[in-house]
Amino acid sequence: MRLSTLIWSSFLQTCLASHAQRHIGKNVSIPTVKITVDKGTHFQVIDGFGVSEAFQRSAQMHGKAGLSPSSQRKALDFLFSDEVGAGFTILRNGIGSSTSYTLDFMKSIAPTDPGGPNSTANYEWDGDDGSQVWLTKEALKYGVQYVYADAWSAPGYMKSNGNDTNGGSICGVIGTSCTSGDWRQAYANYLVQYLRFYKEKEGIAITHLGFLNEPDLNQTYASMQSSGFQAGDFLTILAPTLKSSGFGDVKLVCCEATGWNDGEDILAELQSIPGAEETLSVYSSHGYSSNPALPFKTSISRIWQTEWADLNGRWNVAWDNLGKEGEGISWANKIQQGLTLSSISGFLYWIGAETTTVNSALIRFSNDTISVSARLWAFAQFSRFVKPGAVRVKAESSVGYVRVSAFETVGGGLVLNVINNGHVGVKADVEVLGGKGKGGNVTSWLTNNGNNLTMGGGFSVTSGGSGGVDFNGMVPGRSMMSFVL
Ligand SMILES: *[C@@H]1O[C@H](CO)[C@@H](O)[C@H](O)[C@H]1NC(C)=O
Ligand SMILES: *[C@@H]1O[C@H](CO)[C@@H](O)[C@H](O)[C@H]1NC(C)=O
Ligand SMILES: *[C@@H]1O[C@H](CO)[C@@H](O)[C@H](O)[C@H]1NC(C)=O
Ligand SMILES: *[C@@H]1O[C@H](CO)[C@@H](O)[C@H](O)[C@H]1NC(C)=O
Ligand SMILES: *[C@@H]1O[C@H](CO)[C@@H](O)[C@H](O)[C@H]1NC(C)=O
Ligand SMILES: *[C@@H]1O[C@H](CO)[C@@H](O)[C@H](O)[C@H]1NC(C)=O
Ligand SMILES: *[C@@H]1O[C@H](CO)[C@@H](O)[C@H](O)[C@H]1NC(C)=O
């Protein structure tokens, strides 16, 4: 079915034409890009977009470093609001392994060694969890749907190196031999106890659980190494423990490799352990050491990119900053390519908001001021409109520098994300195939150096389309525009 032709204001046309002239120096005709969306060709289901406030960043957000209550609210709004922010739907919390909250450590719920894997664990609950309890309750009020609790390490006494920092493995997994015994069941019980504290003491249902972070690295902070064989070994104990403890509905996530290539290797090893792959609802990897550029070969229903950031270069709020670290337009492309090339269902930046000098977060605090980077708006271009349950559909562009992705929403609406990496404005002629369009109004949302998710809205829809065009719109150079039908 044809939708209708969307008539743009002549004002915008004029702006775009003069923008093109400034770049090219003489009058040029505006390039036309043919975009085809096929609602009949379905790909992955979307869980959403998100961030973490692990390592006590949640405490910073809660005022530990001087942020006033009104600024705390602003930061929460920017991250989670669907009216003025990114509308994130996934929060990744850190399960502590350390003996204290010194520096930014995450404290364990069983900080002292009970003396052996068969002894009764010394659990304690402080009701705060480094302000993650507060943050999670706030996030849920805004509509966050998935709370993912992930452990960077087991407590030191459960590990081959006796410390939650500096690598080491869970005692008892394939390839380890610890004098303290086999701690696999104790670690599974520990993770379940964390879920129980949140559920019983705080009324929070954690939806997703992970037990590793970057298992290919040995770091001076909480870190635990694991091959895919070892991860698979532990999963075959963790999964039945969840079930028998009444947490069978919590979805297991693994393995958080540092980059996509390591993630591929760890997955292949895990698949060789009978029954391990079947325990997982999400296969996760990070983007740091290699980008998500290929789909994983797996029967696991969801792929998440759970942590990534530009960690070099100074704090940069710009959208288009000539390729400098942390600019918004490169993140818009990274997110979109993760969705289209790697069939990602959940895409998370590392930190949402923190005190920082680099681009590790989307929002920066310094004393009581808040600085919002264009990376947040790059995320918002997706996360405000592509909500959990949306399905990616086929979308193609006739021009290489104009990249597209499209999603059918739960209500039958359509979201089309267009990134114009070119330096002049383009006219996008959009054709929608395969199934009914929603008709009615099309709104467009623009982010570039002068706009942070600006709505060009309530465009009046006129006559039916012709020549294979259902609607069209002008997308300025170096800009991202999402069309929402
Ligand atoms: C470019 O287009 C503008 C607006 O149509 C017109 O006023 C101007 O004369 C043109 N310039 C050239 C060099 O053709
Ligand atoms: C763990 O290692 C850190 C250094 O990374 C050290 O300060 C600490 O004392 C160690 N803890 C134990 C229990 O050995
Ligand atoms: C991790 O790195 C530390 C510091 O370089 C080193 O002392 C330790 O042996 C390493 N751990 C393992 C398990 O290789
Ligand atoms: C813990 O209990 C198991 C099963 O009863 C036993 O096989 C194992 O030797 C015990 N481990 C330790 C360290 O006591
Ligand atoms: C933040 O506050 C501290 C202590 O009052 C002050 O020294 C510092 O200059 C402030 N930083 C900024 C960026 O305002
Ligand atoms: C967009 O956000 C940036 C960074 O916070 C800010 O400097 C700029 O003024 C905002 N632009 C608009 C048009 O709101
Ligand atoms: C389209 O949007 C305009 C402006 O917001 C509004 O006046 C009009 O009623 C809308 N039409 C439909 C069909 O929703």
Structure description:
By secondary structure, the protein is an alpha/beta fold. The protein folds into two domains: 135 residues, Immunoglobulin-like; 342 residues, Alpha-Beta Barrel (TIM Barrel). It is built from nine helices and 21 strands. The strands form three sheets. A nine-stranded mixed beta sheet has the order 18-17-21-15-14-13-2-16-20. Strands 3-4-5-6-7-8-9-10 form an eight-stranded parallel beta barrel, surrounded by six helices. Helix 7 links the parallel strand 7 and strand 8. The longest helix has 19 residues. The chain is globular, with a radius of gyration of 24 Å. One 2-acetamido-2-deoxy-beta-D-glucopyranose binds next to loops.
What are the salient characteristics of this protein?
alpha/beta; 485 residues; binds 2-acetamido-2-deoxy-beta-D-glucopyranose; TIM Barrel; polysaccharide degradation; glycosidase; Immunoglobulin-like; Family-30 endo-beta-1,4-xylanase
Q: What is the count of distinct domains?
A: 2
CATH first level of the largest domain: which class?
Alpha Beta
- In total, the number of strands is 21
Q: What's the assembly state of these chains? A: single chain
Distance between the termini: 14 Å
For the largest beta sheet, what order do the strands appear in spatially? 18-17-21-15-14-13-2-16-20
**Helix-and-strand structural type:** alpha/beta
As a percent range, the share of helical residues equals 10-25%
Main sheet makeup: 9 strands, mixed
Radius of gyration: 24 Å
Count of DSSP H/I helices: 9
How would the global form be characterised? globular
Q: What is the fold-level CATH name, i.e. the topology of the largest domain?
A: TIM Barrel
Q: What hetero molecules are bound to the protein chains?
A: 2-acetamido-2-deoxy-beta-D-glucopyranose
Runs with pLDDT <50, length 5+? 1-14, 460-465
The chain-level mean pLDDT equals 92
SS strand fraction: 25-35%
Keywords: Carbohydrate metabolism, Glycosidase, Hydrolase, Polysaccharide degradation, Signal, Xylan degradation
GO molecular function: glucosylceramidase activity
Family: Belongs to the glycosyl hydrolase 30 family.
GO cellular component, one term: membrane
